DNA sequence: ACGGGTTCGACC
DNA sequence: TGGTCGAAC
């Protein structure tokens, strides 16, 4: 599973920052009286007092552990304060922690490349910052080294007689040391600063590891907690790994680690050194074998990705034992809840980060009643993601049915009173393949926004009800009630009908009446909306008319600084759920304005630009394109090929060439 | 009948 | 590519 990377010729400076019992800190900040008291965060669950998912350090002294029940925690620590995870729509809602994590990221990303590794973990590549510091103001020329930096734990530092602090200071100041160690020292000073800023600005403490690669940094960040940092000089690596149990290493905590112990008798990372690369490859495959061989030597080429935002969003819930869902309608009910949350988060991501997700995936777990093959896995299914709560809900339910049919097998497709021989113990929906949209097309957001609002009124939404998702994989997503009517389902799918749009804005109503055939692609509709959305005054309408032939998308491509991605900008979070600003969306009819934010809840202060766009090409009937005005066709075709665009982005301005070369299509 | 809910990466 | 599996927090 782990894979070896070509070692970037380096003496990089990598930091891993790990928030201390993060959920507890978030709750303690919210409710300061909890500070200093033994505290734990429990997940909603009245069963045995709920499950602990985070335990504060005061409570750990009493032996309280994660994965204890609330009741057990009370037993060993009667004074413990148990705080419940917020609940929304009948399920745990981690939004507050996600947002708190974003606060931290927006601070930590100031000094170098930053990768958000999880809700409470970050990797930083501080190589450049450390090199600059070493060249311009090395530790020995500093007035003083910060207290925080002097509290660093430096592995392998022999503490001879003098106080620990003095030894650490000496290590920081040692000018004859290995260049790479000096870089680490600079890194440690920078990290100490960053941690201090995090504390000042968020009230959260964190721990950190500073080393030459991600693996060692991660290992180190966990060695001295809470609120401390650990440095791993090159010279300390061999001894560190020699006696380190393999299970402590990231990626070796599971089956692979067990296999090393059981099959090879490898108990410590040092034990791995006996095995040749070939031997390891032979047993674990080329990639994993090489990866293991490197790990044994403290080598890890993995780069710090430049990414501040998550790659996907998901919402799920388990229904253990007796709570298992046994009817379609209960499944539908819960899917609706999950989809609602997902949709809300997608809309936030769109507003805050100008990104859209392209794939919807449904996962479920199930068991079979009175059946031998109850081990069978419920297959996950995915389809193109359509925005709007009702559409997501509808598609998720169809995906569920598709999975269920496969799960129970073709023999049971008989009739409707197939007694529930299945029970669902877990449901989750997720949205992935998230790409940015260009800043020149932000009125698209208005379109999505309207979609979402109107689609909550499901009954009069004829277009949506009519729509049958076309799946790229050829998966037949028949309506639930059509399970047994294959023929009818097929004829419906053969009709070349496209999605129409449930949009009740005045502009779109007008446009729709002109094309009542229903053969209006979502994209076309979105185009209409793009051109016309939100134009209220006559003045604006005139402006709209004028710009019609010269869409801002086109201008966008000629804008010199058009391409940069959200990941490089500030982190934004979706604060209060649903409290989306109906704010000024008209600006997209003007030139994109650098650094302009329409968000009411943005953080940080770097300017942010987002670009790269793409869409659900699977849903667009190619023949429709030919009927569009040429310049719009060109736009659409570009839209349909995000991968070409992505490449072009890398090559910089060649995107303009690509685009203009297609303008005549 | 359980640490739950997420997120990510690799493999095929 | 979609889907599965594993790992981590």
Automatic annotation (TrEMBL):
Its EC number is 2.7.7.7. Keywords: DNA damage, DNA repair, Magnesium, Metal-binding, Nucleotidyltransferase, Nucleus, Transferase. It catalyses: DNA(n) + a 2'-deoxyribonucleoside 5'-triphosphate = DNA(n+1) + diphosphate. GO terms for molecular function: damaged DNA binding; DNA-directed DNA polymerase activity; metal ion binding. Gene3D superfamilies: 3.30.70.270, 3.40.1170.60, 5' to 3' exonuclease, C-terminal subdomain, DNA polymerase, Y-family, little finger domain. InterPro entries: DNA/RNA_pol_sf, DNA_pol_Y-fam_lit_finger_sf, DNA_pol_Y-fam_little_finger, DNA_polymerase_eta, Rev_trsase/Diguanyl_cyclase, UmuC. Its main location: nucleus. Pfam families: IMS, IMS_C, POLH-Rev1_HhH. It comes from the Eukaryota. Its cofactor is Mg(2+); Mn(2+). Residues 14-253 form the UmuC domain. One of its GO terms (biological process) is DNA repair. GO terms for cellular component: nucleus; replication fork; site of double-strand break. PROSITE patterns: UMUC (PS50173). It is found in: Nucleus. Belongs to the DNA polymerase type-Y family. This is DNA polymerase eta. It comes from Sesamum alatum. The lineage of its organism: Eukaryota, Viridiplantae, Streptophyta, Embryophyta, Tracheophyta.
């Amino acid at each position: 599973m782990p894979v070896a990377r070509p070692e970037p010729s380096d003496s990089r400076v990598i930091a891993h920052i790990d928030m201390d019992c993060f959920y507890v800190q978030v709750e303690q900040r919210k409710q300061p009286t909890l500070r200093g008291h033994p505290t734990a965060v429990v997940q909603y669950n009245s069963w045995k007092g709920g499950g602990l998912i985070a335990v504060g350090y005061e409570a750990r002294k009493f032996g309280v552990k994660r994965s204890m029940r609330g009741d057990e925690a009370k037993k060993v620590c009667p004074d413990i304060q148990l705080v419940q995870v917020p609940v929304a729509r009948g399920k745990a809602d981690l939004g507050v922690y996600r947002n708190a994590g974003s606060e931290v990221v927006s601070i930590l990303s100031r000094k170098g490349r930053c990768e958000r590794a999880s809700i409470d973990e970050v990797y930083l590549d501080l190589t450049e910052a450390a090199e600059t510091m070493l060249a311009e103001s090395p530790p020995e020329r500093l007035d003083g080294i910060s207290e925080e930096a002097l509290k660093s734990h430096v592995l392998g530092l022999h503490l001879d007689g003098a106080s620990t602090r003095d030894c650490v200071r000496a290590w920081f100041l040692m000018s004859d040391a290995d260049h790479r160690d000096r870089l680490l020292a600079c890194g440690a000073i920078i990290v100490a600063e960053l941690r201090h800023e995090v504390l000042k600005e968020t009230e959260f403490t964190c721990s950190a590891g500073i080393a030459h690669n991600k693996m060692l940094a991660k290992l180190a960040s966990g060695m001295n907690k809470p609120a401390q940092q650990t440095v791993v000089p090159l010279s300390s690596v061999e001894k560190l790994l020699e006696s380190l149990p393999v299970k402590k290493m990231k990626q070796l905590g599971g089956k692979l680690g067990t296999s090393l112990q059981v099959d090879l008798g490898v108990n410590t990372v040092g034990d791995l050194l006996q095995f040749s690369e070939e031997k390891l490859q032979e047993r674990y495959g080329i990639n994993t074998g090489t990866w293991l061989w490197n790990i044994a030597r403290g080598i890890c080429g993995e780069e710090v990705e430049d990414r501040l935002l998550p790659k996907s969003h998901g919402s799920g819930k388990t229904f253990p034992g007796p709570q298992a869902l046994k009817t379609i309608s209960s499944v539908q009910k819960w899917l609706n809840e999950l989809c609602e949350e997902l949709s809300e988060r997608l809309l936030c991501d769109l507003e805050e980060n100008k990104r859209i997700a392209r794939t919807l995936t449904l996962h479920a777990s199930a068991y079979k009643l009175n059946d031998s093959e109850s081990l069978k896995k419920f297959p996950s299914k995915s389809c193109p993601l359509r925005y709007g709560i009702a559409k997501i809900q509808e598609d998720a339910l169809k995906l569920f049915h598709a999975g269920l049919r496969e799960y129970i097998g073709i023999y049971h497709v008989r009739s409707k009173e197939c007694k529930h021989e299945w029970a669902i113990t877990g449901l989750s929906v997720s949205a992935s393949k998230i790409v940015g949209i260009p800043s020149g097309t932000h009125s698209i957001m208005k379109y999505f926004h309207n979609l979402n609002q109107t689609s909550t009124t499901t009954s009069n939404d004829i277009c949506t009800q009519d729509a049958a998702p076309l799946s790229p994989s050829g998966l037949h997503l028949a309506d639930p009630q059509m399970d047994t009517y294959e023929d009818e389902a097929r004829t419906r799918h053969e009709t070349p009908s496209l999605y129409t749009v449930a949009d009740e804005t005045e502009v779109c109503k007008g446009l729709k009446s002109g094309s009542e055939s229903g053969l209006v692609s979502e994209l076309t509709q979105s185009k209409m909306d793009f051109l016309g959305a939100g134009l209220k005054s006559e003045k604006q309408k005139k402006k709209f008319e004028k710009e019609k032939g010269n869409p801002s998308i086109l201008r966008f491509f000629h804008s010199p600084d058009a391409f940069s991605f959200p990941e490089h900008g500030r982190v934004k979070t979706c604060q209060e759920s649903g409290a989306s600003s109906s704010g000024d969306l008209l600006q997209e009819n003007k030139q994109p304005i650098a650094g302009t934010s329409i968000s009411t809840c943005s953080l940080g202060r770097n300017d942010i630009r987002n670009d790269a766009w793409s869409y659900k090409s699977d849903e667009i009937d190619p023949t429709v394109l030919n009927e569009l005005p040429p310049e719009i066709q060109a736009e659409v075709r570009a839209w349909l090929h995000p991968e070409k665009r992505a490449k072009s982005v890398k090559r910089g301005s060649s995107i303009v060439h690509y685009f203009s070369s297609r303008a005549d299509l």
